[in-house]
Design brief:
The chain contains 20 helices and no strands. It is mostly helical and about 450 residues long. The chain has 2 domains: about 35-220 and about 230-345, Up-down Bundle (Amino acid/polyamine transporter I); about 365-454, no CATH class. It is globular, with a radius of gyration of 22 Å. Its main location: membrane. One of its GO terms (cellular component) is plasma membrane. It holds the Pfam family Nramp.
Length: about 450
């Protein structure tokens, strides 16, 4: 009886007002911190893809976003868990040992940096497109404004400030898109069923793969693995998972908003449709959401490139600390590339196509390498992957192979001017299956059959 009383006392003491507030504030700070991942994957590309999917196919592709969020949670949790448990990031592990694999290190960094730089102009112009929906700011002035805001924040090297502000931007973006989505005619029952039941409408394959590819992004793995946070495992998981789910809800809301478009899809057309149905305020809210998405990605993209450089090249001398000129030179370069492309009117499509092809190669490679690392007992100890997590990860890696192959084939198709190249679905599936089989074999060889069979 006394023991039961003590347990009850401890239980209620744990949930006392003081502890509850402390735990809640701690978790809120963690959610705000990890909103940097949501801010990174909800950019103009995601807004465009999700809204166009809604415009073209209603909510039939909503389930793809559900899967994408699951995949993002699994990969980002593994990357953050690796950092907390081992105290190392991916680049440090790759460069450890007697022989530093400089060729691989440089190739990985250049691939990530090129992708970040290629998308930066689109991020900045996407933010300006959002501003233009409710202001009269010119493209040149808007691009400079976005550049100055991003540059000023990154120059502080205060990641607590940056992540908190990005969390606030995600909150504004979320409010704008969710508020707009709630004004639509979509019922809760339809939304729920479409979110969990897969469907494959005709001619939807490119948008389907695009929804996954704009959410599961390779440089975000380096971002989540390399950024300093000082959190414990449990706190990280709470903040990371909730932040990514919130990001997923925002992406889903964008698709719901896209269902309201009548006629050919464009941001202007979508905003006008929303204004005609719900007034000027809703149209302005959509513009605010698009501007917030572009601004957040304009900050996270250069930051991800710099963190990848630090993860790849840093050593005991700590020459790549966040406040060093080396670290700053990377994100400044990405910011300047975006600014020049935005101001000059250069066609960024060929560059983005090349970036898609590179990211298509990089995504499955990084995902595979991450899975191998988090199965290493010497690094992860009791916190290495379990059987079910390995099986889920292999399935996600299979999708990564498929998405990556599709990006490569899509780039080749545009370069060759032959759309048939991108229609080789069976070949893409074969490559994905072979990739998963090789990964399963590597894990079993390194850790034993029990990692997948018991």
């Amino acid at each position: 009886m006394l023991e039961t009383g003590v347990k009850l006392f401890n239980y209620f003491r744990f949930f006392s007002r003081e502890n509850r507030i402390f735990l809640t504030m701690k978790n809120i700070r963690s959610i705000l911190f990890w909103s940097i991942i949501s801010a990174a994957f909800i950019g103009p590309g995601t807004v465009t893809t999700a809204a166009k999917a809604g415009s073209s196919f209603g909510l039939d592709l909503l389930w793809a976003l559900t899967f994408s969020i699951l995949g993002t949670v699994v990969l980002q949790e593994a990357a953050a868990r690796l950092s907390i448990v081992s105290g190392k990031n991916i680049g440090e592990i790759l460069s450890s040992g007697k022989d530093r694999k400089w060729g691989q290190l440089i190739l990985i960094f250049l691939s990530v940096a090129f992708g970040c730089a290629a998308y930066q102009a689109g991020n900045m112009l996407g933010a300006v497109a959002g501003l233009n929906l409710f202001t009269d700011v010119s493209v040149r002035v808007g691009t400079v404004v976005i550049f100055v805001i991003g540059f000023s924040l990154l120059w502080t090297s205060n990641f607590k400030l940056i992540t908190s502000l990005l969390g606030a931007i995600v909150a504004i973006m979320g409010f704008a898109f969710i508020y707009t989505a709630l004004k639509s005619d979509v019922s809760a029952l339809e939304f729920t069923s479409k979110a969990v039941i897969p469907s494959f409408p005709g001619d939807s394959d490119l948008l389907l793969i695009g929804l996954i590819g704009t959410t599961i992004v390779p440089y975000n793995i380096f971002l989540g693995n390399g950024i300093k946070h000082g959190q414990e495992l449990r706190q990280m998981r709470i903040g990371l998972i909730i932040a990514i789910i919130i990001g997923g809800i925002i992406s889903m809301s964008i698709m719901v908003v896209g269902t309201q478009v009548s006629g050919e899809f464009s941001f202007v057309n979508l905003a006008e449709t929303l204004r005609s149905k719900g007034g000027s305020f809703i149209g302005s809210m959509f513009g605010l959401g698009l501007a917030a998405a572009g601004l957040s990605s304009s900050i996270t993209s250069p930051l991800a490139a710099a963190i990848t450089a630090k993860s790849t090249f840093n050593d005991s001398r700590n020459l790549w600390d966040e406040k060093t000129i080396r670290f700053k030179s990377v994100w400044i370069s990405v910011m300047l590339i975006g600014l020049v492309m935005g101001l000059s009117g250069l066609k960024v499509i060929p560059v983005i196509i090349a970036a898609q092809a590179i990211n298509g190669l990089l995504l499955p490679v990084i995902a595979c390498y991450l899975l191998i690392i988090v199965n290493r007992t010497d690094l992860m100890g009791a916190f290495k992957n379990g059987i079910w997590l390995n099986l889920i990860s292999l399935f996600i890696i299979g999708i990564c192979f498929f998405v990556g192959t599709n990006n490569i084939f899509g780039a080749l198709s545009k370069i060759a001017g032959d759309p048939r190249i991108n229609n080789l679905v069976q070949l893409k599936l074969v490559i994905a299956v072979i990739g998963v089989a090789i990964m399963a074999w590597v894990i079993i060889k390194k850790n034993g059959a029990k990692t997948l069979t018991k």
